[in-house]
Amino acid sequence: MKAERGLLFVAGVLGGLLLACTSDPPSNFGGAWAGSGNGSGGDGNVTTSGPLPETAADTFTQVVYGQLMTSCGSCHNRDVVGVGTPYFLDDVATDAYTLVKGLPGYVTDPATSRLILKPVHYGGQGPALSTEQKELVTAWLNQELTENPGGTGDPGTLTPLQELETFGQCMSFDDFVNLNVRALSDEQAIYQNNSVECDSCHDDGQSGTLISAEEVEFFEGTKLMPYILKFAAVTLNEDGTFKDIARSNRWVEKCVEEQLVGNPHPECQNGQIAEEVVNSINSYFDLTYERWAADECDLATQPPPPQ
Ligand code: HEC
Ligand code: HEC
Questions:
Q1: 0.70 cut: is pTM over it?
Q2: How many Å separate Cα 266 from the centre of its chain?
């Protein structure tokens, strides 16, 4: 079903593009974007009547919303998201408008908007906006800027949680593989007199901890809430604003800290995890941190798309 909708959508946008090329100069949307604003998510079809609505709010609810719901709604609709996925859409177009305007970094100068900058993600399942959609979103954002100069979202004011999510996006699959972070899943704990690997209890994210022998799953999960918390933590200034990101070290410390009396965590083999695994985890943090601090997260590599 999803795939079918995807195909329809591609056909719709291509149709709109052709029409735009033959009947309108590229900078004038000339109505190539009308339609899909009925709040149902639409099928991505575009028609050729009328210019963009007059207000930014109407442009969003009547035109942009349908495009975003079609391409991004399956994962970013507040009413359907799974654990850890950030949301900026809603079943109701006007609610989505309020939501997205309240998120830092989304309704900004088009050059810095996360909507526009977000590349293909989530192992290839999360698309980037198409060129045509980017043009549409740019036109809408420019309308927002004209209506409210300087007053739109500020990408410099991410919440601590969003900072952590951004940090997650700086993780690079190449680092994960080269450092063999997956080896953590082979570490062992003693359970009922047997040695059991960490992933036998944590491969589905049990107890908020994801440790899996499936490299891609482990990598992707570690980028997201809540699992990222076992790896990295935010530090705050006294006034509660974001300060920095530091190792949270939970994977390592779980094995060496004092256990809860009465309900202890199974004791780790040798009382600790192997030093080389600790080093891998720490190096993985350091490389991610460097990329994040240098604002070079676009250099992070992604896993190959699922077959
Ligand atoms: C199949 C699911 C899926 C689809 C479809 C999808 N995304 Fe995502 N998106 C995710 C997941 C999971 C995350 C969190 C991890 C990540 O960023 O890779 C995310 C994160 C994001 C973020 C927030 C993090 C950041 O870098 O600011 C933005 C923005 C985003 N996606 C934009 C989009 C846009 C725009 C579309 C549609 C063109 C889209 N996504 C479609 C799954 C999806
Ligand atoms: C037999 C099952 C089992 C095995 C094997 C196991 N765990 Fe756990 N783990 C649990 C349970 C149950 C909890 C929740 C209770 C707790 O926190 O002690 C947990 C919680 C955790 C937590 C999260 C809570 C926190 O304090 O942050 C971490 C981290 C963790 N385990 C790491 C590991 C590591 C590393 C290994 C391998 C060396 C491992 N676990 C092996 C059962 C297991």
A1: no
A2: 33
